[in-house]
Design a protein that fits this description.
There is one protein chain. This protein has 17 helices and four strands. The protein is mostly helical. Among the domains are: about 45 residues; about 80 residues, no CATH class; about 90 residues, no CATH class; about 30 residues, no CATH class. The strands form two sheets. It has a two-stranded parallel sheet with strand order 1-2. The chain has a two-stranded antiparallel ribbon with strand order 3-4. The longest helix is centred in the C-terminal third of the chain and has 23 residues. The chain starts with a helix and ends in an 18-residue tail after the last helix. The C terminus is likely disordered. Putative transcription activator involved in regulating light control of development.
Length: about 350
C-alpha cells in the first residue's frame, strides 16, 4: 500500500511540474536512479528525454560492486569511468561487453540495470540532449555545496526561498565578476565572447579555447578535419562528433580550433545561445545597470565603492580594517539617513535602464 501511495505522489509531483510550466513539458529532465521516479516520468512525460546524473550513479556503483569485486574493483571503476566518457555508442556497446566478460558481473541485477539505463547516463547517448552542463560532477558538487550553505532540517519553505534570494544578491557583483574575466589568449573571438557571455559561460568557453591550442586541424579533401569536424560552407554550420555544443550549449575545443584555422574574428551569433547570454540572465551586468548610466550621483557612488574595494583588496590588513570600520560607519550613517524626511519634493529615478 505504501508503494502505491509513493507512486501516486511521484506522478502528482510530475503533474504539478507540468502545471508550473503552464502545460509545457520539458525537453529534458534530470533525476537520480530512483525506479519509481523513473516510472512516473515515463508515464507523465513520455516525450521528455530522461537523463540521470553520473554524480548520483557513482556512489551506487561503489556500494554495488566494491565488495563483490574486491581487489578488482578499482580496475572495474576505471573501466566504468572510461565507458561513461566514450563518444561513440558503438564503442560503448563493444567495451561494455568486454568489461562484463572480464569482470564477470553479467548476471548481476545491478549491472543489468545500468545497461538497461545506458541511454540515460552514458555520455555517448545523452550528449545529443541539451543539458547546460547540469549533468556534470562539478555542477552537482557546486549545487550540493550551495544548498548545504542555506538549507537545514529546520528550514521552512519560505525561509529557504528567502535564503536563496540572499545568496543570489551576494553573488550579484557585476563589477567584480567583470574584473576577473581576464583574457588568456590574443584571439579576437575570445574578446568578442567576453563581451557577450556570462562569467560562467565565458569561463567554460575560454577553457575550451585554451585547450584547442593543443590540437592541429588539417582539412581533408572531403571537408572533414582530423579533429573529426566538418564545415558546411552553404550554411556555415560546424558539427563535432563529441556533441559538446548539443549537450552544453558551449562550443567545444575542436570546433573552436576549426574557427581559428578559418580565421574567424567573431563566432557566428547562433553559437551564443540565449541560455548563456547576459541579456537573458536574472543578474544585472555593467551594460544593464540598476540605475541610468548618465546619473552623476550613481557614477560618483560607483567610483567611490570601486576605489574602496580595490584599495582594501591589496592586503589582508587593509581588508580587515575596511570591513571593521565600514560596518561601524555605515550603521551610523544609516541611522542618520533614516531620521531624515522620506520626501523632499524631488523625485529620484531608480527605474531599470531599457534594454533591447
Amino acid at each position: 500500500m505504501y508503494l502505491l501511495r509513493l507512486d501516486f505522489f511521484l506522478c502528482l509531483l510530475v503533474q504539478t511540474l507540468i502545471r508550473f510550466m503552464k502545460g509545457r513539458c520539458p525537453q529534458t529532465i534530470l533525476s537520480d536512479l530512483d525506479p519509481r521516479l523513473r516510472d512516473a516520468i515515463r508515464s507523465e512525460l513520455p516525450s521528455t528525454n530522461h537523463v540521470m546524473s553520473i554524480w548520483d550513479i557513482l556512489p551506487k556503483v561503489s556500494s554495488w560492486f566494491s565488495i563483490q569485486l574486491g581487489s578488482q574493483y578499482e580496475e572495474f571503476k576505471s573501466e566504468f569511468d572510461t565507458l561513461y566518457r566514450l563518444e561513440s555508442t558503438e564503442e560503448f556497446e563493444l567495451r561494455w561487453n568486454q568489461m562484463v566478460s572480464i569482470f564477470g558481473p553479467g548476471s548481476d541485477k545491478h549491472i543489468t540495470l545500468l545497461y538497461n539505463l545506458r541511454t540515460c547516463w552514458a555520455l555517448s547517448y545523452v550528449r545529443v540532449h541539451f543539458l547546460a552542463r547540469m549533468a556534470t560532477t562539478a555542477y552537482s558538487k557546486s549545487v550540493d555545496a550551495f544548498l548545504k550553505g542555506i538549507f537545514s532540517a529546520q528550514s521552512c519553505l519560505r525561509g529557504f526561498f528567502e535564503q536563496v534570494g540572499v545568496a543570489a544578491n551576494v553573488q550579484n557583483q557585476p563589477h567584480q565578476e567583470m574584473q576577473y574575466m581576464h583574457m588568456k589568449t590574443c584571439l579576437p573571438i575570445e574578446e568578442h565572447s567576453r563581451q557577450i557571455l556570462t562569467p560562467f559561460a565565458f569561463n567554460a568557453l575560454q577553457n575550451e579555447l585554451i585547450v584547442s591550442m593543443q590540437y592541429a586541424a588539417s582539412e581533408m579533401s572531403n571537408g572533414s578535419y582530423l579533429v573529426r569536424h566538418f564545415r558546411k560552407i552553404d550554411d556555415e554550420q560546424i558539427h563535432c562528433s563529441c556533441k559538446e555544443f548539443e549537450s552544453s550549449g558551449i562550443l567545444c575545443r575542436h570546433a573552436l580550433r576549426v574557427f581559428i584555422d578559418k580565421n574567424y574574428f567573431q563566432l557566428p551569433d547562433k553559437y551564443f545561445l540565449s541560455r548563456w547570454r547576459r541579456e537573458s540572465t536574472l543578474m544585472f551586468y555593467d551594460d544593464h545597470s540598476v540605475l541610468h548610466k548618465d546619473d552623476a550621483w550613481f557614477q560618483e557612488f560607483q567610483s567611490l565603492t570601486e576605489t574602496l574595494f580595490t584599495e582594501s583588496s591589496i592586503t589582508k590588513e587593509r581588508s580587515d580594517y575596511i570591513r571593521r570600520e565600514l560596518t561601524k560607519k555605515l550603521t551610523t550613517l544609516l541611522n542618520e539617513v533614516r531620521d531624515m524626511p522620506e520626501s523632499d519634493g524631488v523625485p529620484m529615478d531608480f527605474t531599470l535602464t531599457p534594454t533591447d
